Amino acid sequence: MTADQMPLRESDWTVPVYAQLPVEPIRGDGVYIETRDGRRILGLYGGHAVACLGYGHPGLLDALRTQAETLLFQSNAVPMAVRAEACRALAAFAPEGLNRVFLVNSGAEANEAAIKLARLYGHQRGIQNPAIVVMENAFHGRTMATLSASGNRKIQAGFEPLVSYHRA
Ligand SMILES: Cc1ncc(COP(=O)(O)O)c(C=O)c1O
Fold first, then answer.
1. Ligand 1 nearest-atom number relative to CA 143
2. Where are the domains of the chain?
3. What does pTM read for this prediction?
């Protein structure tokens, strides 16, 4: 087999941040995943909940196509009715009293926002250095604030100084 014919390996082209599992999903169909080596696996994970409707759900595909054809993206510096609609739907689904949405792109950003919100809340109540309780060996993302909140020394090593969550 020549180099051209070798299957492309993601790990040859990406920074080695993730320890990947020995399974390569190539296609999804409803609740099933097809792998490069021909297995059909029941997918109970839902692609980080991105695919929680299943793979290839016709309603989702329609909505994605319609929006991509209409207007792919605009900054949140401008208002968009479609975003308003999505936020209203999320708020309707959330527990009572949670009626505003902060849209982010990743789990780390969501956790960063939660950390910032906790500090803001503390400051607004006159607490000078609000402490944030973090768990040993938790994982909250790869940004500085979320990495610092992990308590897992192994994944923090080399990135010091970390964000401090202790009272000064
Ligand atoms: C519990 C938990 N928090 C936060 C994250 C970070 O999410 P993201 O990779 O979308 O930034 C993850 C990702 O695996 C996670 O499992």
1. 11
2. 23-72, 75-103, 107-156
3. 0.84
The minimum-distance atom of ligand 1 relative to the CA of 138 is 1
Residue 83: Cβ within 10 Å count: 14
What tokens were used for 114?
């939660």
161: preceding bond cis by omega (within 30 degrees): yes
For residue 30, the 8-state DSSP code is B
For a ligand 1 pocket test, name from 112, 134, 140 the mutation site with the most ligand atoms within 8 angstroms of its C-beta: 140
Span from the CA of 110 to the centroid of ligand 1 (angstroms) = 9
pLDDT at residue number 80: 97
CB of 42 closer than 8 Å to CB of 31: yes
Inter-CA distances, 59 with 53, 54, 87, Å: 9, 11, 18
Q: Average pLDDT of each block of 10 consecutive residues along the chain (168 residues)?
A: 81 90 94 96 91 95 97 96 96 94 94 94 92 85 92 90 78
The finding on whether 141 has its CB within 6 A of some atom of ligand 1 is yes
Kindly state if the Cβ of 108 falls inside 6 Å of ligand 1: yes
Contact in structure between 165 and 132 (CB atoms under 8 Å): yes
